[in-house]
Amino acid sequence: MSPPEPEVRLSLAGACHDFRAGRRIGPISFTARTGEIVGLVGANGSGKTTTIRMVTGLASIDAGTVEVGGIPVRYGQLPAATTAMIEEPGFYTWATGRDNLRLAAGGHRDRVGRIDEVLSEVGLSDAADKLVRRYSQGMRQRLGLARVLLSDARLILLDEPTNGLDPRGIRWLRGLLRSMAGQGVTIVVSSHLLHELEQIADTLVVVAAGRVLLSGDAASVCSGHENLESLYLSLVDTGPR
């Protein structure tokens, strides 16, 4: 008997967001299961960030549904056990990296006790007591990931997390995400760096002009194409399947 499929942690069914100017993102439909890494593939402006904002309650869901753990997402409310790093993470630049994490811990004793651990995990132990305004972009990305790790969330959404990371940092991030998925964390990661998503994602969701062109198991989605880039370009040229 085959083992049961992991439970669905995130489900989008025809989810749409309408901008005031009349542009619509959607319909967006896909699922993410426990311990799965889902890659949102698309160019800048394709709708990846808005999709993540709908999941986190930062953008209204004007049609369709978004559910986390079977519970509908409501505008203005972050779903339980969920965290995100959207675009460039914001910090108190006059404070140190360590102090920013203390503030993020919100007085939770167990989280405060894990600050040194997550700083070490993201490679910022030596820079923990430097002011964030002196951090490079890559260091700020790592601090943002430390804040994500501190949350103990079971659903993590990362928007262009490789921004500012050098090749060694990107390889480190790949290993970190795989490790987290192995612990049962569900991860949705968006990127326009197609070769990176091809290496890390279990499931791919290809988005262009606010619509899903194709989604499915990464291996089957790319079948018949040289790589994810060639698949993406062919889809953009021919439209949704």
TrEMBL record:
A molecular function GO annotation: ATP binding
Stored SUPFAM superfamilies: P-loop containing nucleoside triphosphate hydrolases
InterPro entries named among the record's database cross-references: AAA+_ATPase, ABC_transporter-like_ATP-bd, ABC_transporter-like_CS, P-loop_NTPase
Every ABC transporter domain range: 8-234
Oxidoreductase is among the record's keywords: no
Statement: the UniProt record of this protein carries the keyword Transport: yes
Keywords tagged on the record: ATP-binding, Nucleotide-binding, Transport
Entry-linked Gene3D superfamilies: P-loop containing nucleotide triphosphate hydrolases
PANTHER family with a match to the protein in the record: ABC TRANSPORTER, ATP-BINDING PROTEIN
Recorded family membership: Belongs to the ABC transporter superfamily.
Name the record gives this protein: ABC transporter domain-containing protein
Source organism per UniProt: Paractinoplanes rishiriensis
